[in-house]
Bifunctional NAD(P)H-hydrate repair enzyme
Amino acid sequence: MQKVIVGKQVKELDALFVKESGISSYQLMERAANEFCHWFESKYKKAYTVNIYCGTGNNGGDGLAIARILSGMGYEVKVAIIGNQEKGSVDFIKNLKVLPKKVIESNWRQLEPRDLCIDAIFGVGINRPLEGEYLDLVQMLNNNEAVKISVDMPSGLPSETPADGEVFHADYTISFQFPKLALLFPEHAAYVGKLVVRNIGMEPKHFKPFPSEYWFFSGENMPAYHRKFHVFSHKGDFGRIILAGGSFGKMGSICLSTMASLRTGAGLVFCKVPGCGVNIVQSTIPEAMVIPPSSDMEVDADLDLAGIDAIGLGPGLGKGNHAHKLVHHVLENYTGPTVLDADAINILGENREWIALLHPNVVLTPHLKEFERLTGKTCDNHLQRIKLAKDFCMNNHCSLVLKGAFSLLTFPDGTQVFNNSGTVFMATGGSGDVLTGILTSLLGQGYSVKNAAICGVFHHGHAGELAGEKYGRGTLPTDIINSIPQSLLAFGIE
C-alpha cells in the first residue's frame, strides 16, 4: 500500500530519496521521463507527431527529457517552451542543453497541436490560477482535438485543493510513485482523464519520515490481507451470513448481493426478504436459504441474529415502516460485523438519533448522494467529503466506503485509503449491491473490518475490470459477480 503525502513533503521526499539512493535530482528526473516513455511507447505508434509544451521548472525539465527519449525511440517530436529560460530550474537547463537538434523548438503560439500533445508546463508547485500567456496556451490546447497527456499534474491544477480557474484537460495523467491528492477528486475528472501511476523506485522506507493519513491501494501484497483456510475447513468456517433487503419490484438488488456473497466464498447464506421475493430467491439462487417472512410486500423486523457471523442490510429494502423497524432492530441488537447499504443508509439519515447506535463493526457503503444524506451537502467538493468522512467515522467509531472512482475507505482511527481498481463500465445499477455481498461474505469469513474493506473493494473493482475487458459498456453486475473468482485467483487467493 502506497502512502500519499502532501504539501512541501513532496519536495522533501525527492530530496531524501536522492540523498539515500546516491543519485542526483537530474537522474531522478531521468527515471521519471523513462517511465513516462515506456508507458507512451506501449500505447502510441511512432507514426504520431508529438508536441511537448514545457514550462521552465522541473515539470518542464521532465518534458524536455521526455522529448529527448521519445526522439531517440523514433518519434517525430516538437517542443515549445513557455517562460523565461534563463530563470529555469537547474535540471530544466541541463535537459535543455542535451536536447537533440532533430527535436524542433518552436514558439508555443506557432506550434499547433497535431496528433498528440504533452503538457509539461506546471507540476505540483502551482498555487494560483493560470494567467497571462500560460492561460492563453492552456485555453488554446483545451480547444484542440489532439490527444492530451499531462506529466505528473494537469497544468493549472493544485496538487491538494480544488481547481480554481482554467486547467489543462488531459486524456491521460501520468503521475510518479503516488497520485497527488487532487488527482483523486471526482470534480477533477475532466482535467485528469485516465490516471496512470508509474513507479520510479521509491520504497516504503523513504516515506516513513512523512506522516500521512492517506493511502493508495493497487493490490500490493494482496495475500497478506486475506484469511487462509486449512484442508479441514467446513462451511461453518466460511461464515453464516444474513443478507436482508428486497421489496416488491426491487428483488434484483438482494439477489445480486446474495450471488456475490456466494461467489466470494460465503459458507451459509440466509436471505431475509419479503414474501413476494421468496420464490424469486429460491428459484434464482438455489444455494441460498430464505428466512420465512411474515410480510408479503416488505422485509419485516422479525429477525433472529443468534449464531450469525455478519449481516448485510439495505439492497432493494425500500423505506417503508417495516424497513425502518428492521434497521433499528439490527443496530440495537447486533454488535457483529454489519454492512449498511442503499436504503439502510437512507433510513439512517432520516433517523439521525440512530447514528449513536453505530459501532466499530459497522461498514457503511454510500454513493455520493447517500453520503450527503448522512453528512450534509458538500457543493461538489471532494476535499470536504474526505474530511467529513473522516470526522463521521472517528466520531461514530465506524468504517465507511464512499463509492465511486478511487473509492475512499475511511476507518475509525482516521486512516483513509483510496482504492485503485475499477472501471467506468461498472457505472450501472446493481454494482453497489454486488459490493455489499462481497463485503458481508468476507466479514462472515472472519476478516477484520479493515481487511474486509480493503480486499472487498479492491476485488469488486478488479472483477469489474475483468468483466469490462470482455463486455465494455455492456457490462452487467452479474458479469462482475462471475469475475470475482477470477480476481481472487489472479492474486493467488485460493
Summary: The mean pLDDT is 95. The radius of gyration is 25 Å. The first strand starts at residue 2 and ends at 4.
